[in-house]
Specification:
221 residues, alpha+beta, Glutaredoxin, Glutathione S-transferase Yfyf (Class Pi), Chain A, domain 2, binds glutathione
Length: 221
């Protein structure tokens, strides 16, 4: 690789974490720059087409969208984390996108002040997790015994669910044993653990408290 990559991040963002997991899994030396998303700097507004993280700077070029960044990083550093079979790869891409929808439901479930809305989002999450359970291999990783891109894409979501369980006692994986086992396997990986700042579990609890939504009433201690 000719130029050092720079990832623009927000510490709490699960989409950034998807990219970091691939970078770490592939032992790529990269810079990470944290911004405050509630008060983004002008230089970030200038380069980020959607005003969102992650953004990957490749020299003077800018990439956005976590799945695109994951694929780019994967392609420039063979061997690929994607399965070789074209149909399986396409199916995995579709389920990666599905995982993004689960992440988008977790945020309002955790932060909404409206109990009904929070419970509606929880129901959406549980329904989607049930669907995911039916397509999971039941082995260590999503497709089997090999860590693939889809595992990198889902680890941040599973980490958020573990924070929710840790801080509120709500176990969203209690009816999906394959996903619960998958979560244990993924969250034990060193490059997954190293993909976030060490204080993230405390930050996540702080975020629930700060947002003061319905879930804040469920916080333990
Ligand atoms: N589809 C995007 C979603 C990224 C995203 O939602 N990032 C959030 C932080 S986790 C963000 O930047 N939000 C700021 C905003 O939307 O203004 C991706 O996969 O990269």
């Amino acid at each position: 690789m000719s130029q050092k990559l720079e990832l623009i991040s927000f510490k709490l963002c699960p989409f950034v974490q998807r990219a970091v997991i691939v970078l770490k899994k592939k032992n790529i030396d990269f810079d990470i720059t944290y911004i405050d998303l509630s008060n983004p700097p002008q230089w970030f507004k200038d380069i980020s087409p959607l005003g969102q993280v992650p953004v990957l700077k490749v020299g003077d070029e800018v990439l956005f969208e976590s799945s695109v960044i994951q694929e780019y990083v994967d392609e420039i550093t063979p061997p690929s984390l994607q399965p070789e079979d074209a149909l399986l790869k396409a199916k995995n891409r579709a389920w990666i996108s599905f995982g993004g929808d689960i992440l988008f439901a977790i945020h309002p479930m955790v932060t909404s002040k409206d109990e009904t809305l929070s419970n509606e989002k929880k129901a959406v999450i549980l329904q989607k997790l049930g669907q995911l359970e039916t397509v999971h291999s039941g082995q260590t990783y999503f497709n089997g015994e090999t860590f693939n891109m889809i595992d990198a894409a889902y680890a941040p979501m599973l980490m958020r669910l573990s924070f929710i369980k840790q801080h509120t006692g709500i176990d969203l994986l209690e009816n999906t044993p394959k996903l619960a086992k998958w979560s244990e396997s993924l969250l034990a990986l060193d490059f997954v653990q190293a993909s976030v700042v060490p204080e993230l579990p405390i930050m996540y609890k702080g975020m629930i408290k700060h947002m003061d939504g319905f879930l804040a009433t469920k916080l333990l201690d």
